[in-house]
Amino acid sequence: MNISVVISTYNRADSLERTLASVKKFAGEIIVVDNSSTDGTPRVAKQYGAAVYTRPNNLMLNVNKNYGFTKATKDWILCLDDDEVIPPELVSEMKDAIGKTDVNGYWLPRKNIIFGKWIRHGIWWPDRQLRLFRKGSGSYPEKHVHEYIEVTGATGVLTNAYVHYNYDTLAQFLDKMQRIYTESEMQKYEAAGYRISWRDAIRFPASDFIKLYFAQSGYKDGLHGLVLASLQAFYSFIIFVKLWEKEKFREIDIPVQHALEEMEKTGRETAYWVTTVKMREAKNPFVRVWHQILRKIAHSS
After folding, report:
1. Which CATH architecture has domain 3-166?
2. How far apart, in whole angstroms, are the C-alpha atoms of residue 156 and residue 130?
3. DSSP 8-state assignment for residue 111
4. pLDDT tens digits, one per residue of 78-131
5. CATH 3.90.550.10 occupies which residues in the chain?
6. DSSP string of 191-230?
7. pLDDT in tens, 125-160
8. Going by C-beta distance under 8 Å and a sequence separation of 6 or more, which residues neighbour residue 299?
9. Rounded to 5 degrees, what angle do the CA atoms 127, 18, 7 make?
10. Assign residue 222 a region: left if phi > 0, alpha if psi is -120 to 50, beta otherwise?
11. Full-model pTM
């Protein structure tokens, strides 16, 4: 197939082999940008016939991905991470998609496997990513680690998903959160000139938990959904603390009445979404209407 598969990796020899095995049969070429690994990752890549380019490890991950794009020789580029897999049904769909002349890129749904389970709600599904694009028409802006590839021209959406083996362990989640993701988020706030308020210590985590668990139906993923919403709330709290650290942990007096008012506000927002979930899940239409009335009362109070 007329596709260059580009993978940027660092010390992931274990998972990289799974990724390479899923693309070897259809890829016109495989380009691996190795971020100075020390665990044998380049050796694994070469076993699958990949062209390997070694670069300094850059916490702005997308810099080395863009470098890999410049080495591609095929008409289309498929950008993958070293923990992602392309299933056969998506291969067939991509083959048809790249034959179209009026589209320069495609959004692909991504199936996130976290702690051994496909997470079907919240920010983790359908989690569409623009990963397949015509060579020369797309690149990462290099402003934020969670940014999308920007493509010049029309884009389309594919139906079949690729698989992302996202977090296997809690240690992996905490390591990436501390070392990469919260640092990038903090820098984004700094670049925007954001100055923290003590209220953010409550609002950041509470907002993320409510959004993921209630508004985006994370509760439907069982204990996985509850834990992931809680971890995401902790993630947001760490961003707040890192921003505070940048301000040298400046002292801020908090009158207890103000703290209570903020907590009560969070409580009202939580009550609103609890009632919303009850309304959604109610089988009886009269019960659904009753919860809708209660929600209006809670929202107006």
Report:
1. Alpha-Beta Complex (3.90)
2. 9
3. E
4. 999 999 999 999 999 999 999 988 999 999 999 999 999 999 999 999 999 999
5. 3-166
6. HTT----TTHHHHHHHHHHIIIIIIT-GGGGHHHHHHHHH
7. 999 999 999 999 999 999 888 899 999 999 999 999
8. 272
9. 65
10. left
11. 0.91
